[in-house]
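Hey L., structure's done. Input below.
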Amino acid sequence: MKKKIFYTEYAYAIGLILLALSTSLMVLADFGVSMVVAPAYILHLKVSQYLPFFSFGMAEYTFQAILLIFMILILKRAKLSYLFSFVTAVIYGFLLDGITLLVAYLPSEGFIARVILYVVGMLICSFSIALLFRTYISPEVYEMFVKEVSAKLGMEISKFKTIYDCVSCLISIIMSFAFFGLFVFKGVQLGTVICALVNGSIIGAFSKILDKNFEFKDKFGLAKYF
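Output:
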């Protein structure tokens, strides 16, 4: 079967929008957010107590700026593409704040409705990340960190992703205890743990489906700038 063309620029735009949508759905479900965004979400909950304007989106690109510095220290190098990954984080932050306002109108009362919101959000999250891994445009710092560090370590990206998710989950729990008290779980619940364990595998499955059915090509030839 001949593969269909999927332009990487479209993969970037669609992936970023879907990623913001998935996060908004999981926040609404209230089973705990994705372990990747949990540290930023907890930071938002804490800082917004004193600075009400400090939105979830703002917390996202603030936390990703810290992660970017950490990645540069690990790799011992800096690239222009790393700066673009922060630009992506800022765009994502604005998308997240906007989509969160829209998603708030979805029905979320009752256990079944919340489960559906969370499962759909988690699947969309995995699919969006699989898309972002297939574009030359710098993804968010989260994805850039996984992509670059896994390559440096010579580890399969889906396996490193699972390790990264579990570490992020642990950091989130520590932050929740530190900010809100011992054994107080803010943003980190059963759904967060489940997502940490399965997200890497789901991304791997979506990646295989995408590679089997699509050939990813650059439409505008701007890869050299990234």
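The longest strand covers residues 4-7. Residues 127 and 206 are 6 Å apart (CA to CA).

-- N.
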